[in-house]
Specification:
Blueprint (H helix, E strand, L loop, with lengths): L16 H9 L3 H5 L15 H13 L5 H10 L1 H4 L12 H10 L2 H19 L11 E8 L14 E7 L4 E8 L5 H11 L6 E4 L6 H9 L3 E4 L6 H16 L8 E9 L2 E11 L17 E10 L4 E4 L1
Parallel strand pairs: 1-4, 4-5
Antiparallel strand pairs: 1-2, 2-3, 6-7, 7-8, 8-9
Helix pairs in contact: 3-4, 4-6, 8-9
Pfam family, one: DDE_Tnp_1_assoc
Protein name: ISAs1 family transposase
Organism: Pannus brasiliensis CCIBt3594
Length: 312
């Protein structure tokens, strides 16, 4: 089996290449991906599983899109890849890549990949979190368009994803049967991620006491969307803001921000009020919402020639 992930920029250069190999040995590619089970029949294994995974990862990181491009990447980099992979029968075909990855457990692969990426960033001293502001991570569920299989009557694939706004990439995903299962999938996704110091945003489905508690437990912060699925709390907050607005927030602690944009034959005005949770009487008397500090009202007004639309 391969001894680890050992890419070097120029395998022909002896000077300095040994140090680079030793450095990348420490990334523990084999250690992290050893937990991915190889479900192929033993007599059909012409290629090592770790070779297949390594080539696919390197190809995708280099911009490959699809199994044929992954195979082409492997063929083009074959001599270089031999420096750190076994490749007993050369580069696997695109059909082999497709069949092998179809058998791999997605959860096992995701956990291994996240662990490996974490080790790589730590060993190389990469600054994952941008300095100056906490990273924003959006947790959201989406049904993949076109994933419904009419012939086999398979339901469309629904995924809960963690999206890093600063890095513009998906940090992790969790498959669910439908949108109603997001409540159980979100904690599973959060358990896989290192989110310390981040600010997580979640829609109304993720506005749950248990999820808020887990985020605080993992030393992160949250912005949750409060809607009518928490009827009592929503009505209390909504009524309080309506009264406070009518009285121009006189005698109440609050922060206010607004911006106005003109364009496309319309005027858009956005207003945001932020108040300490203590200002709203009886909102969380038992302290069940861990880390809850403020309530925010966001009002958007869009004015055109024919209509005025308010969104709260």
């Amino acid at each position: 089996m391969t001894q680890g992930f050992l890419p070097v920029s120029n395998p022909k250069e002896e000077s300095g290449s040994k140090g680079k190999k030793e450095h990348f040995l420490a990334t523990g590619f084999q250690k992290h991906f050893a937990s991915v089970r190889d479900l192929r029949i033993e007599r059909t294994k012409a290629h090592n599983l770790l070779d297949i995974i390594a080539i696919a990862l390197l190809a995708v990181l280099s911009g490959a899109d699809g199994w044929e491009e992954i195979e082409a990447y492997g063929e083009g980099k074959c001599e270089w890849l031999k420096n750190f992979l076994e490749l007993p029968n050369g580069i696997p075909s695109h059909d082999t890549f497709s069949r092998v990855f179809a058998k791999i457990d997605p959860k096992e692969f995701q956990e291994s990949f996240l662990g490996w990426v974490k080790t790589v960033t730590e060993k190389l001293g990469v600054e994952v979190v941008a300095k100056g502001a906490p990273p924003a991570i959006a947790i959201d569920g989406k049904t993949l368009k076109g994933s419904y299989d009419r012939e086999s009557r398979k339901k469309a694939l629904h995924l809960v994803s963690a999206w890093s706004s600063s890095h513009r990439l998906i940090l992790g995903q969790q498959k669910v049967k439908n949108k109603s299962n997001e409540i159980t999938a979100i904690p599973e996704l959060l358990e896989m991620l290192s989110i310390e110091g981040a600010v997580l945003t979640l829609d109304a489905m993720g506005c749950q006491k248990e999820i808020a508690s887990l985020i605080i437990q993992k030393k992160a912060d949250y912005i949750l969307c409060l809607k009518a699925n928490h009827k009592g709390m929503y009505e209390r907050v909504f009524d309080w803001f309506q009264l406070a607005k009518a009285e121009n927030f006189v005698g109440r602690k609050s922060d206010y921000y607004q911006e106005v944009e003109n364009g496309h034959h319309r005027v858009e005005k956005r207003e945001v009020w932020v108040v300490p949770v203590e200002e709203i009487p009886g909102l969380d008397p038992k302290g069940e919402w861990k880390g809850l500090k403020t309530e925010v009202l966001n009002v958007e007004k869009s004015e055109t020639k024919n209509a005025i639309i308010d969104r709260i």
